[in-house]
Design brief:
Layout lengths: L3 H6 L1 H10 L6 H37 L5 H32 L20 E6 L12 H5 L4 E2 H7 L6 E2 L2 H19 L3 E2 L5 E2 L1 H7 L10 E2 L5 E2 L4 H5 L6 E2 L6 E10 L18 E11 L4 H19 L3 E5 L11 E9 L4 E10 L3 H6 L2 E3 L5 E3 L1 E9 H11 L7 E2 L13 E2 L3
Parallel strand pairs: 4-9, 8-14
Antiparallel strand pairs: 1-11, 2-3, 5-7, 6-7, 9-10, 10-16, 11-12, 12-13, 13-16, 14-15, 17-18
């Protein structure tokens, strides 16, 4: 959520930022509601002050034996007026906050301006795509004899659900354990958070109200998490943390649940875009002066995972039209998928500045003793299902077997190959 004081003083900057995001929202409607809200609040305060003064006059007149009947009549009229204005004040605040909470974050000045993912900019790449001496097989077909079963997943639940069994299930778990150990070495604290959260938690990180259609509800005021970012970041909701506690670094391997309502028709085949998937998430809560540096660090941590797996990738910075609602700057990391002859997103690392912190009321005391909002960051290290896809596609053999990357073999009890059933 943006600071209304900043909006009042930077109207043109905000409108330009919203336009660059492709948003139809402008500051004009918000500022009208803001002015109305302020006018009503002022009117309520003035009426309450007048009522207080009249009450004093009545007291003085009565103490002097004077006639206070006319003032008593005036006093009685104040009640309905104040009540009506207070109701109007509540409505004006609700209308104002409804618009304010729906305004996305303002991108950094260095974020490239663009409309779609085609306008994202590659900033670096690593590794050379492997040349196969046979025709590589796409992971859905390769997985049929390795234990990746979409038919059973669809039977049990529906489309975009999978059943993994045997060594392939073990391999995805190995990928997650490897990532968690990697992050522990980087100073992250592992967390096992709740996988069901309430409205306030979803509001805090920006999933509600804007992205309700992409979420799975499990009853009134309860939602399945779309990412562990949600509970991890909300750890500091309604808190005033000590400056010495910063930075806070959390990681978690969790299931993620997304209806993908906004992605209808995309990646309906295979293990790329599922309604239920697993991800190792990184979250940092930092001092405002450290958030830019923290984003670079988190992105490098995710890149190191792919380097250790020896999977080629590229890192891109998202343009203004493709950046997420709460983010001010985002890097996507895309792994090479041979059978698609392209890079596919496997991680997204974002700096949200104080946008989420304002929604969560997450603050700290600076060196002057004044309250400031913390900055929050999140990133995948990595989506374990998509990493499994990248491993399968890049490490497949002509006989349909799968070589296990060297860094994962210790997590598989020394096993080096997964053979077809």
């Amino acid at each position: 959520m943006l600071d209304i004081k900043w909006i009042r003083e930077n109207t043109e900057t905000l409108d330009n930022a919203l336009a660059s995001r492709g948003s139809s929202v402008t500051s004009s409607e918000l500022l009208k509601l803001d002015q109305k809200r302020r006018d009503v609040i002022t009117e309520v305060q003035e009426l309450q002050s007048k009522r207080k003064n009249v009450s004093k006059e009545i007291g003085i007149l009565k103490s002097q034996g004077g006639d206070a009947d006319s003032l008593m009549e005036e006093m009685q009229a104040f009640g309905p007026k104040v009540k009506a204005l207070e109701e109007e004040e509540k409505k004006s605040i609700i209308d104002f906050e409804k618009i304010l909470i729906g305004i996305p974050n303002v991108p950094d000045s260095e974020v490239p301006v663009g409309k779609t993912e085609d306008d994202n900019v590659e900033i670096r790449n690593w590794g050379t795509p492997k040349e196969f001496d046979f025709e590589p097989v796409a992971h859905p077909e390769l997985g049929e004899k390795l234990g990746l079963d979409f038919v059973t997943g669809a039977k049990l639940t529906g489309a975009r659900y999978a059943w993994l069994q045997g060594d392939i299930a073990r391999l995805e778990r190995a990928i997650a354990m490897f990532m968690l150990d990697h992050l522990r070495e980087k100073g992250f604290t592992e967390v096992m958070p709740p996988f069901i959260v309430n409205d306030a938690t979803m509001m805090g990180t920006g999933q509600l109200p804007k992205f309700e259609e992409d979420l799975f509800s499990v009853g009134e005021d309860r939602w399945l998490i779309p990412t562990a970012e949600v509970p991890l970041t909300n750890y500091v909701r309604d808190k005033i943390v000590s400056r010495d506690e910063l930075p806070m670094k959390f990681c978690a391997w969790s299931p993620c649940f997304r209806s993908e309502a906004g992605s209808a028709g995309k990646d309906t085949r295979g293990y790329i875009r599922m309604h239920q998937f697993f991800k190792v998430e990184m979250v940092q809560i930092v001092h405002p002066e450290k958030s830019a540096e923290a984003l670079e660090d988190m992105t490098s941590f995710a890149e190191e995972v792919l380097q250790k797996l020896d999977i080629p990738y590229r890192t891109i910075i998202l343009c203004t039209g493709d950046i997420g609602f709460a983010a001010k700057r985002t890097y996507d990391i895309e792994a090479w998928v041979p059978t698609q002859n392209t890079y596919r997103e496997i991680s997204s690392c974002s700096n949200c500045g104080d946008f989420q912190a304002r929604r969560m009321k997450a603050r700290f005391k600076n060196t002057d003793g004044k309250m400031e909002f913390v900055h929050t960051l999140n990133g995948s290290s990595l989506a374990t299902g998509r990493t499994l896809v990248a491993v399968m596609e890049n490490y497949q053999n002509a006989d349909g077997s799968l070589t296990i990357p060297a860094v994962l073999q210790s997590y598989m009890g020394g096993q080096s190959v997964i053979k077809p059933e």
